[in-house]
Amino acid sequence: MKIISIRDIHIGEGLPKIIVPLVGKNKEALFKELQLVKDASPDVVEWRVDLLLEVESLESVKDTLSYIRGYLYPTPLLFTFRSHKEGGNKVIEPDYYKQLLREVIQTKEIDLIDIELFSEEVEELVSLAKDNHISVVMSNHDFNGTPSKEVIIERLTAMQRLGADIPKIAVMPNSPADVITLLDATYTMYSTYADRPIITMSMAKSGIISRLSGEIFGSAATFGSVVSASAPGQIEAKELKKVLGLLHNA
Question: Which residue, 61, 166, 227, 237, is the most exposed by fewest CB within 10 angstroms?
């Protein structure tokens, strides 16, 4: 199994890594949030740039990114624009999504970038990220329900074929059985098909167990909140760290 190493963080080895999102809507809010996030000592910080009010200004995005990078370094930084159709905050044109990701990749001020599986020109964006030594978290989010085990595995293996360093899927459970489907798919993917780290989760309150059980079923990272959650079901990061430790040492 391939390990994704960014400085002293090794994704796919040991405890699931804790990723904490930055969710501020403007620079002032982000700069206040940064201290709280840094104090939580996450393994990775995700900047959810779709929540930024000035996201359609490339210069503002890049200026803010530079500050975030300098403040948090050496903590690995994941850059994510979550599209509206996959639960994000902002509707933008596909051309701007591609331009945004291209320009951010070329700054080389991030360690990982989220590229959605069903976005346009995925292969071109993956290639550009790799040329700039940036790891790709390829993602798919279903806020309406939980696909079948076969579909979940199909999407994760498609991400591998497209060159994702870390395939990621998040689904919404409508019953406890849906959570079991996600966990079953995760373990089958991890034990049979995956040759690199994967991230999976079942969202909302009923899916919380999936955010805690990565070490058992094969998900290499989990998301925890500090200021506020970026998706339903996220647990406060410090509490999450305690539970992961308890499960690891049980």
Answer: 227
Model pLDDT, residue 235? 84
Q: Cα–Cα–Cα angle for 214, 215, 220, nearest 5°?
A: 60
Backbone angles phi and psi of 42, in degrees to 5: -70, 165
pLDDT at 231 over 70: no
CA distance 79 to 139: 12
How far apart (Å, rounded) are the C-alpha atoms in residues 116 and 114? 6
Catalytic residue among 25, 27, 108, 168: 168
Q: 48, 21 in Cβ contact below 8 A?
A: yes
168 carries an active-site annotation: yes
Contact predicate 198/218, CB 8 Å: yes
DSSP string, 193-243: I-SS-BEEEE-TGGGHHHHH-HHHHTB-EEEEESSS-SSTTPEEHHHHHHH
Q: Which of 27, 84, 98, 141 is catalytic?
A: 141
pLDDT in tens, 205-229: 999 999 999 999 999 999 998 876 5
The string of pLDDT tens digits covering residues 21-60 is 999 999 999 999 999 999 999 999 999 999 999 999 999 9
**β-bridge mates for residue 202, sequence order:** 171
Give me 216's structure tokens.
Answer: 């058992």
Residue 35 CB partners (closer than 8 Å, separation 6+):
none
| 3-28 residues labelled b (16+ CB within 10 A) or e (exposed) | ebebeebebbeebbbbbbbbbbeebe
